[in-house]
Design brief:
InterPro entries: Cys/Met-Metab_PyrdxlP-dep_enz (IPR000277), Cys_met_metab_PP (IPR054542), PyrdxlP-dep_Trfase (IPR015424), PyrdxlP-dep_Trfase_major (IPR015421), PyrdxlP-dep_Trfase_small (IPR015422). Its EC number is 2.5.1.48. This is Cystathionine gamma-synthase. Belongs to the trans-sulfuration enzymes family. By secondary structure, the protein is α/β, with parallel strands linked by helices. It folds into two domains: 242 residues, Type I PLP-dependent aspartate aminotransferase-like (Major domain) (Aspartate Aminotransferase, domain 2, 3-Layer(aba) Sandwich); 137 residues, Aspartate Aminotransferase, domain 1 (Alpha-Beta Complex). Strands 1-7-6-5-4-2-3 form a seven-stranded mixed beta sheet, with helices on both faces. It has a five-stranded mixed beta sheet with strand order 8-9-12-11-10. α1 packs antiparallel against α2, α3 runs parallel beside α4 and α12 runs antiparallel to α14. The longest helix has 20 residues. The chain is globular and about 75 Å long. The N and C termini lie far apart (59 Å).
Length: 387
């Protein structure tokens, strides 16, 4: 069978990996070596130093590139390391356009790190292509897209935004962490770069931190490789091994994540304690049609809004038993958090409220537990705090 015709469930297990030629080991070995013997000075066997390249890491990079439909992959010690590498492309005077409900850590990197290098940023409502077009100009170097967004789960029309970026010779980079390549492949819609926090669904077990960039542009990948090696935000081989292991079960896990999230979102829409539910798989969500067009399913993330104070909302997320109060997402266990006090606290309050990130907003990462237990747990927290 032609490898290119294989389904993603098969490629997740096999892409980029072959049994070890020395031993026949089915799993890619953990090459825990910092350096490699050379046949002569300057004549290596493909690897010279593990910051520059490592066989375990190379297998993961090839696997991720295949799943995203790209030709080149680079992995990093964290998702932020991957995002920073894209921003390394910017020079003084360059401009970046991003979504106004971007992940708080991304917002912090953009506004508190790169502002000192005279890189300017505009945060706009990317559900409106006209707003994107109005913000992009001749100085724009990168248009940064999250879809679905974090935490309002807005689906952004990748093809429309990519077209706008390319009209101005800017790059379109898409953070595909929430969707994963099982549900959405941005390169197919015109994006130049796909970014992942491998910590989330790709690893899938809350036991590893990592990031990745995938592209089909060899010249762009070469620049990413230069920054990857020069800056040194590279993962260790054991972390790469853990992500490779996690990716093998990505398709079956994502099916359950999506099923549980959709069930919870539908149930929450009918709860009197809840004012609004943000889930792109609900027809009530304003970006439902965009999500249906470019995603194969709607993901395991949802948010909902209570008519409650910051303190009351904090009490709700602190009174669950099956859900764990924690940042991050995408593990097999369900997590719950309050963006205003946790993941998006770095965003100034006025700016946060203007973007729809209210004090009563709760974000949920639906795990793969039985959905009845998840519903009962949320109801118990509502009853305890809100009566």
């Amino acid at each position: 069978m032609d490898e290119n015709s294989r389904r993603i469930e098969t490629r997740a297990i096999h892409a980029g990996q072959q049994p070890d030629p020395e031993t026949g080991a089915v799993m890619t070995p953990i090459y825990a070596s910092s350096t490699y013997a050379q046949d002569a000075p300057g004549e290596d066997r493909g690897y010279e130093y593990s910051r520059t390249g490592n066989p375990t890491r190379a297998a993961l990079e090839a696997n991720l590139a295949d799943l995203e439909g790209g030709t080149h992959g680079r992995v990093f010690s964290s998702g932020m390391g991957a995002i920073n590498t894209v921003l390394n492309l910017c020079e003084s005077g360059d401009h970046v356009v991003a979504s106004n409900d971007v992940y708080g850590g991304t917002h912090r990197l953009f506004t508190q790190v790169y502002d000192q290098y005279a890189v300017s940023f505009d945060f706009v409502d990317m559900t409106d292509p006209d707003a994107v077009a109005g913000a992009v100009d001749s100085d724009t170097r990168v248009v940064w897209v999250e879809t679905p967004t974090n935490p309002l789960l807005n689906a952004i029309d990748i093809a429309a935004v990519a077209d706008i970026a390319h009209e101005h010779d800017a790059l379109c980079a898409v953070d595909n962490t929430f969707a994963t390549p099982f549900l959405q492949r941005p390169l197919e819609h015109g994006a130049d770069v796909v970014c992942h926090s491998l910590t989330k669904y790709m690893g899938g077990h809350s036991d590893v931190v990592g990031g990745a960039l995938v592209t089909a542009d060899a010249a762009l990948d070469e620049r990413f490789g230069f920054y990857q090696n020069s800056v040194g935000a590279t993962p260790n081989p054991f972390g790469c091994f853990l992500v490779l292991r996690g990716v093998k079960t990505l398709p079956i896990r994502m099916e359950r994540h999506c099923e549980n999230a959709h069930t919870l979102a539908t149930w929450l829409e009918n709860r009197p304690e809840v004012q609004y539910v943000y889930y792109p798989g609900l027809e009530s969500h304003p970006t439902y049609e965009t999500a249906a067009k470019q995603m194969d399913d709607y993901g395991g993330m949802l948010s909902f809004e209570l008519d409650a104070t910051l303190e009351e909302t904090s009490a709700v997320v602190s009174n669950t038993e099956v859900f764990t109060l924690a940042e991050s997402l995408g593990g097999v266990e369900s997590l719950i958090e309050q963006p205003a006090a946790m993941t998006h606290q770095a965003i100034p309050r006025d700016e946060r409220i203007a973007a729809g990130l209210t004090d009563g907003l709760i974000r949920v990462s639906a795990g793969i537990e039985h959905v009845d237990d998840l519903r009962s747990d949320l109801q118990g927290a509502f009853d305890t705090v809100l009566g």
